[in-house]
Design a protein that fits this description.
Helix content is 45%, strand content 12%. By secondary structure, the chain is an alpha+beta fold. It has two domains: 161 residues, no CATH class; 173 residues, Alpha Horseshoe (Serine Threonine Protein Phosphatase 5, Tetratricopeptide repeat). A seven-stranded mixed sheet has the order 1-3-2-4-5-6-7. Helix 11 packs antiparallel against helix 12, helix 12 runs antiparallel to helix 13 and helix 13 runs antiparallel to helix 14. The longest helix is centred in the middle third of the chain and has 19 residues. The radius of gyration is 22 Å and the shape is elongated.
Length: 347
Amino acid sequence: MTTSTPPGSARPVLTDPAQLIAALPYLLGFTPTDSLVLLGHRPPGTGIGLVLRADLPPQDLFAYQADALAPRFRAAAHIGVTAVVVGGHAGPDGRPPFAAFVTQLQRALAEQDLRLLHPLWTAAIEEDAPWSCYRDEECGGLLPDPRGTVIAAATTRAGLVSFPSREHVAALLEPRSPEAIVRRTALLGRLEGPPGATEDLVSAATAEVRAAFERRRSGVEYIDDEQAVRLAHALTIKPVRDACLALASPPGTEVALDAEALWLSLVQELPPPHRAEPASLLAYTALLRGEGALAGMALENALEASPGHLVARLLYAAWNRGIDPARLGGLGARSEVDLGLEDAGAG
């Protein structure tokens, strides 16, 4: 299982290996364990581009895993890759584990005309955990407190969150009430889909989305079955969905954060395939804000709910290739619908 964090969010330059390892929870959005983390380097080499996490494979899959991961860094302008192995124990001679895996990574990257700039290892990402280098026996030591890194400070100022584990991120997307999902599946199954984006239908759908925002802004987070069904249909209407996409930009604003909270709640409240709409909106908002881990899991959630969902497939391809989110910022720019949410939040 892999997790990708796209480039695009502001990232300080890191040149100290211990600081770089300790910063991984803030670059990924969660603390990795038993993982390989690959960090692409932008020209001139100190800037961080795509960050990719994968589970550590068994020995017989070292070459396969390396061949699967290396091409991901070819799609964007990277001059090389730093690899960090997280997990395992140093040998009796003090050498880090998984050396054969690192050798396969170096080979696979070279086949993509990329250099493995610095292969590193740590037992765990926590204060005083041992770390070392695969190439230099004199390179190593104990990690600093991850909360005190430059990246930790920068991400905290930006409003980004680092979760204790990947499982904590995944838990955010779980249904709030399995019983409600069953009821709403039945209700949505009895209704015919909307015939098209008529003026009356667009107007009603716009009002429904605006009302959902107003409820959340007034502190009402509960969504009943009728509201859930109406919102599920509202988000399938393209002009309304485009207007919802537009709320993500500029990222980090009050409206964008309100939208992200609403989309997350609807992921928890709607059954498949209808869940794919808010999951795609959540992923887009998270991508623009630099929350790569949440974006990736939301996209997986959307495609599980509706494998053919076009927006989810487009965003997944961009996320998977490490495309700068700034290049995706115009997805909702052509919307003809004004949700009027700035006015709704005023006063």
